[in-house]
Amino acid sequence: MTTLKSSTAKLGAPKVEGMEAVSGKDAAALYFGTTKINNNFDVVDAVVKENGGTATLFAKTGDEYVRVSTNVPKPDMISHNVQEARWQRACNRDHSGPQR
After folding, report:
1. How far apart are the C-alpha atoms of 29 and 73, rounded to whole Å?
2. What is the average per-residue pLDDT within 21-39?
3. At residue 34, does pLDDT exceed 60?
4. What integer pLDDT is reported at residue 91 of this predicted model?
5. Which of 47, 51, 67, 100 has the fewest Cβ atoms within 10 angstroms?
6. Is 65 helix (H, G, I), strand (E, B) or coil?
7. Which pTM value belongs to this model?
8. Long-range Cβ contacts of 19-26 (<8 Å, 24+ apart)
9. What pLDDT, on the 0 to 100 scale, is given for residue 73?
């Protein structure tokens, strides 16, 4: 959390201005300085690269908080990533002997 806070603070003061669709849902447009965060994954990806885990930024939109930037995969992406990893392991196996 500290890294996420310091990373966004370096961009400038937070503000909400206008609306922008995020994953098909209208959300308040979240800015830090002049950098719009909606659909921008640079900050959350940099935080995860440095610390591991996941990171998400929300913007209050009406009575709810909407995820405007995240690297948390959707359940269908987790399934896809697992399938891709299995495929890659299968393709990279040495097929000359018994499998471990």
Report:
1. 21
2. 96
3. yes
4. 59
5. 100
6. strand
7. 0.72
8. 19/61, 20/68, 22/66, 22/67, 22/68, 23/67, 25/66, 26/61
9. 76
C-alpha span between 16 and 29 (Å, rounded): 5
pLDDT band with cut points at 50, 70 and 90 for residue 72: confident
Rounded to a whole number of angstroms, the distance between the first and last alpha carbons of the chain is 40
pLDDT > 80? residue 31? yes
Residue 37 DSSP class:
-
- Return d(Cα 45, Cα 9) in angstroms, integer: 16
> For residue 34, with 0-12 CB atoms within 10 Å meaning exposed, 13-18 middle and 19 or more buried, which class applies?
exposed
d(CA 40, CA 88): 29
Rounded CA-CA distance 20/32 in Å is 15
- The answer to whether the CB of 12 falls within 8 A of the CB of 29 is no
